[in-house]
Amino acid sequence: MFVVTGTGTGVGKTAVTAAIAALARHEGKRVAVLKPAQTGVAPGEPGDLAEVVRLAGEVTTRELRRYPDPLSPEAAARRSGQPVLSPAEIAAAATELDHTHDLVLIEGAGGLLVRYGPDGSTLADVAWALGTVLLLVAEPGLGTLNATALTAEVATVRGLHVSGVVIGSWPAEPDLAMLSNVADLPVAAGAPLLGALPEGVGGLERAEFLERARAGLSPWFGGDFDSERFEKSASSRT
Known about the structure:
single chain, seven-stranded parallel β-sheet
């Protein structure tokens, strides 16, 4: 079990979650993906979990709250009048799934400290309650080093362990900042680079997505990604 968080919204958390799930499922593992709070999606509309199933195949999914406004879970709950989420409720759902699955992925909303309720509870509290590790999804471009370092430092202060960082969307034509950041992201995260998924990977069909997931994720997830080779290739282009 581990928690997938990001340096912000739109960084590729769902694609990374789906890629990890696809590789695990291909190995015959029973996989569950928990999305505690889905925001910005109306009832009946497909959300992040539907995208995970489309890309990864038959995995168990569970969503605890759905709020229609594209806001933080706390703000969206307040506007909708629906109950807020507590870390205890999320942890209980994850633990229940863990009893019947080989791998449970918990995908947060936004970044690590996005609030679930007025008490200030966040995804960091969920990870702490479960005693599980964090996987940090980051952008490749300018500004990512600060956001990555801040997230990793907060995680460490709160007694959490960042297992690695994955670039959620690597473009075909990266700019100078992106190429330079490849070597610096692991330093900022205080954890190894465990993958880089190509830009637009979420738009692929399932079979091709699996191949891109294998190429873009570390052997830690069952993939073939070689961080040293990737860093050397990026460095040679600066």
